[in-house]
Design brief:
Number of helices: 1
Order of helices and strands: HEEEEEEEEE
Number of strands: 9
CATH superfamily of the domain at 38-97 and 113-143: Immunoglobulins
CATH class of the domain at 38-97 and 113-143: Mainly Beta
CATH topology of the domain at 38-97 and 113-143: Immunoglobulin-like
Distance between the termini: 80 Å
Radius of gyration: 24 Å
Structural class: alpha+beta
Length: 145
């Protein structure tokens, strides 16, 4: 009887391990892997035709479950450091983050973020979409009040 119980446990263990390995293999093939086409992204952000001189631009794709953000420089330019998967991305633009008040004794400087209207700070409200294609993508976003 003990031998039958041992065989049952061993067979059950082998079945569970086989099922687990099969599941991992199946799900590993479901994602968009290294063969997905990629696009390089750069561009400018302006407010009423003038460069947004600081802040961050974010790209988010719910369909692909990926997102990225990058700082905007003093000329309103941004460039993602590495290519991203092709597809449509919702875009939001945020003022720069305030410095951590726990570091140092000075209060953080007040920032005028009037050049980034509040509707652009949310990818669901901004209405901005970036359609990234394979290769180079030069984007331009001109914010309106």
């Amino acid at each position: 009887m003990n031998r039958d119980l041992y065989c049952l446990r061993t067979e059950s263990s082998v079945f569970v391990k086989t099922l687990l390995i099969s599941a991992i293999t199946l799900f590993a093939g479901c994602g968009q892997g290294a063969n997905s086409p990629l696009g390089e992204v750069s561009g400018t952000v302006t407010f009423q035709g003038k460069p947004v001189m600081e802040g961050e631009i974010s790209f988010y794709s719910a369909a692909q479950g990926i997102g990225t953000k990058i700082p905007i420089d003093s000329s309103g330019h941004f460039k993602l450091p590495s290519p991203i998967e092709v597809g449509d991305y919702k875009v939001s633009i945020m003022p720069p983050p305030l410095p951590d008040p726990s570091i140092g004794s000075q209060l953080p400087p007040k920032r005028d973020s009037a050049s980034i209207p509040s509707k652009y700070r949310s990818d669901s409200l901004s209405g901005l979409i970036a359609s990234i294609k394979q290769g180079n993508n030069e984007l331009s976003f001109d914010l309106k009040p």
